[in-house]
Task: inverse folding
């Protein structure tokens, strides 16, 4: 990749940032379509966020992705937010528009894109069970509600976060039925049976947080089980749901689509989907 005086800059702000796949995927896409842009890793400690955003602004960055731990704290440094970012109360993509920084959240849209494009699942009128009430669960619930899902049941360890998510959906999407159930509630088995879509939006199943987010009883053929986790590629939950006859999908496609949507927001061009997907697959398989 060549860098010239006129090369346009984007990047990803986070801490730590060494393990991100985003520079590889976005740079492969710029090269594929012949755009003179470059995407850089931008390691920024929490206390340095304000200075970093000012720096990116004055250096003329076209935009940047935002990852942990800055997705929420970035908001106070931006000029305006998209509707989804307001509801999610989190930003993962920033675009510079003139002198203004506009915050977007593409996680939920990436999730719904993957449902529609990769498994042909249309949320409208369906019943969804979401396990988790953190940032990812919030984005997923908002996008499902935007896509007119019929009902959402939130299961979460901490009732406060789950109740807050339920109130957000109730207040903004009155046609969507929403309720909270604690993980040990006996009604969960019947809710599982009645839900066409079951989403693990907790970090349970990651190498440093082993365990199942919910029991497998009630899950079987006719259910789509989605685990937002992509490392490991197949969590125990996904493996066992598959053994029970459910259709399964991991978080790789959500990761891909949220990145493609960010690329499109910055460039106003259609992203080279195949190139980005292949680059991500190679990274996941450890080939790059
Ligand atoms: P977060 O805001 O920290 O939320 C974590 C969630 O997991 C909370 O609901 C938390 O419950 C629950 N949890 C964590 N440890 C638990 C345990 N031991 N027992 C029960 N519940 C537990 O994290 P996040 O940003 O929402 O991310 C959640 C997952 O989604 C992560 O695995 C992340 O990698 C994945 N993700 C994937 C994508 C993608 O593109 N595929 C995008 C974003 C996130 P409490 O509320 O009770 O603490």
Result:
């Amino acid at each position: 990749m060549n860098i010239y005086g006129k090369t346009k800059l984007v990047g990803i702000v986070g801490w730590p940032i060494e393990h991100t796949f985003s520079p590889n995927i976005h740079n492969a896409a710029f090269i594929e379509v012949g755009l003179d842009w470059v995407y850089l890793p931008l390691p920024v400690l929490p206390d340095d966020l304000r200075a970093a955003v000012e720096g990116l602004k004055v250096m003329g960055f076209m935009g940047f992705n935002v990852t942990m731990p800055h997705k929420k704290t970035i908001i106070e440094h931006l000029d305006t937010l998209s509707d989804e970012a307001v509801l999610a109360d989190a930003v993962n993509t920033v675009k510079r528009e003139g002198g203004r920084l506009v915050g977007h959240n593409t996680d939920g849209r990436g999730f719904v894109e993957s449902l529609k494009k990769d498994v042909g699942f249309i949320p409208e009128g369906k019943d969804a069970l979401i396990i988790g009430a953190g940032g990812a669960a919030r984005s997923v619930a908002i996008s499902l509600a935007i896509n007119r899902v019929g009902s959402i049941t939130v299961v979460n360890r901490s009732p406060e976060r789950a109740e807050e998510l339920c109130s957000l959906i109730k207040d903004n999407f009155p046609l969507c039925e929403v309720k909270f159930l604690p993980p040990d509630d006996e009604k969960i088995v019947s809710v599982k049976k009645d839900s066409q879509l079951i989403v693990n939006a907790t970090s349970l199943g990651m190498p440093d947080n082993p365990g199942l987010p919910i029991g497998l009883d009630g899950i079987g053929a006719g259910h789509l089980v989605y685990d937002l986790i992509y490392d490991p590629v197949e969590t125990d939950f996904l493996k066992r749901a598959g053994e029970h006859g459910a259709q399964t999908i991991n978080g790789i496609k959500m990761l891909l689509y949220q990145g493609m949507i960010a690329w499109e927001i910055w460039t106003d061009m259609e992203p080279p989907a195949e190139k980005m997907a292949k680059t991500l697959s190679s990274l996941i398989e450890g080939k790059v």
Notes: The pocket of NAP is lined by residues 107, 132-137, 156-158, 161, 201-204, 206, 209, 228-230, 251, 254-255, 258 (CB under 6 Å). The chain has a mean pLDDT of 96. The two ends are 16 Å apart (CA to CA). The longest helix spans residues 252-267.
